[in-house]
Specification:
The chain has 71 residues and is an alpha+beta fold. The protein is built from two helices and two strands; from the N terminus they run βαβα. Helix content is 39%, strand content 17%.
Length: 71
Amino acid sequence: VQVVTLVTSIRESDDLVAVHEVPRTLVEAQAAALGIPLQVVLLPPRATNAEYERRMGAAYRQLCERGIARV
């Protein structure tokens, strides 16, 4: 398995990872240290599950278009 990109969701309101509340800058630094690109999916404040699924789905479709077959 070759890891070619990392994906995370970030809340637009406070620039934190939506689930773990880790600062975006830390996740970016971790990705840079690994030498792996980071794809950020921005979420509005209090995103519904439907909105989360819509935005993440769009991100995954972009990955598929780039030839990435597994997430």
